[in-house]
Amino acid sequence: MLRLYNTLTHKEEPFAPLHGDVVRMYGCGPTVYARAHIGNFRTYVCLDVLRRTLKYVCGHQVRQAVNYTDVDDKTIKGALESGTSLREYTDTWIHAFREDSARLGIEAPEETPRATDDENMRAMGDMILTLEAKGHAYRRDGSIYFKISTLPQYGQLARLDRDGMKDGAAVDVDEYSKDDPRDFVLWKASKPGEPSWDVGTGAGRPGWHLECSAMALRLLGGPPIDIHAGGVDLVFPHHENEIAQSEGATGTTFARCWFHIEHLFVESEKMSKSLGNVYTIAEIVARGHRPSALRYLLLSSHYRKQLNFTWTGMDQAEEAIRRIVDFRSRLDTVTDSAAHGRVPPQVADARQAFKTALEHDLNTAGALAAVFDLVRDVNAAIDAHEVSAAEAREAADAIDHFDRVLGVVSLRQAEDAEPPVPVEEIERLIGERRAARERRDFAAADRIRKELVERGILLEDNAGGTRWKKK
Ligand code: AMP
Ligand code: ZN
Questions:
Q1: Rounded to the nearest whole angstrom, what is the distance from the C-alpha of residue 26 to the centroid of ligand 2?
Q2: Pocket of ligand 1 (CB under 6 A)
Q3: Domain 15-261, CATH 3.40.50.620 — does that match?
Q4: Which residues neighbour 66 within 8 Å (Cβ) at sequence distance 6 or greater?
Q5: Residue 236 CA, ligand 1 centroid: distance in Å
Q6: The domain 266-417 is classified under which CATH number: 1.20.120.140, 1.20.1250.20, 1.10.730.10, 1.10.3210.10?
Q7: Residue nearest to atom 18 of ligand 1 (CA)
Q8: Mind listing the pLDDT tens digit for each residue in 368-382?
Q9: What is the whole-number distance in angstroms between the Cα of residue 363 and the centre of ligand 1?
Q10: What is the pLDDT of residues 302-331, one digit of tens each?
């Protein structure tokens, strides 16, 4: 049975969904004001591995929501500076996030709500009105605050010492008129030039914490939801405040299991936009690596341990993937018909070890060790001519099963099938070459052809025009 570490109880606990076989989980999504960096993607790759483990190892169904925070100080500022509407501005970054997620083989969640969607805004308004009715909220100068002294359990997730608690003021710097400096903002009064909504709240915009509480409960059904997840930096104040709002409004536990992913570091510093030490997927690719290698690196160590990003680590990840992919291809070449019985127990052991590792708080490093044990053992058996085609098929099925969770082999195969130059670029260059020939500039036409050959693309001219193929 799957065991997960729960930040709320500080213990590893058996995990099963509350209702039937459907796991309802929520992950805090990106703030869409810039291209997400690979630190953010450590969190989303680990969430993807959790999702795939629940589905393909535990046999559950998953209903997952990952939101887009498309209204906050940073998105509003970015939209103003770029002279576009908030919606248009955040659309660009949502598109970029989806593109990068797909390149990393992240399965699309069932729900990807935006905070500014009408239904979500309405749910936030309703939550505020409920909190007010229950005495957990108060209004000051057009803003609305959560009164934490009304909720005895406040601080339980982050294990805060209630008296020595960090001020909410440190987070919402522009709010001065609170009853208690620790209170946090639910709704910010509208300011000139900023987008605003009124959902029974007076004109303004939601606080970040409120967005997630309202969307999680609206989209995943009544509390408690099964799993709530994010990077470790979100434990306080974000998740603590999400609990306060949701439990204040519903009177019931918000989430049963809190799942937090440790940070990705670069040269021993946290990777973050404010430190300026971030890499994007595009930058990794520009350095000659493929997203599958990054995915491998991000899932190769346990999610609760810090992971230090290095280029040597990327090279090792490339090497590791190559070993698995080569092994998987080699299995298809085995044609012997005599069974030797050496491989089936190796496959059974690897399947068991893989499952046991993932069930033990998503120990991906252990799961990979099981994969490499199988690669080593079966390679040795093939070298000794002790594997039949049927036995090789068994090993191949196991690798394919492992990869449903890991998602690196299929990703690498898809990358290999892609042309080395984007199709649109090839077609544009073919057009330029045709134009050069029409104006009898054969030198220019030849330059284009040679450039494409160097980049791995061959052109073939025939009566119907020019066709291209991979070298
Ligand atoms: P943000 O867009 O800043 O709201 O962050 C999106 C997600 O990425 C959150 O769950 C963060 O906790 C997570 N995150 C931010 N920086 C890192 C990092 N260096 N390593 C892992 N996760 C991170
Ligand atoms: Zn959140």
A1: 8
A2: 28, 30-31, 39-40, 42-43, 230-231, 233-234, 261, 263-264, 270-272
A3: yes
A4: 26, 27, 28, 29, 44, 47, 109, 111, 112
A5: 13
A6: 1.10.730.10
A7: 39
A8: 999 999 999 999 999
A9: 21
A10: 999 999 999 999 999 999 999 999 999 999
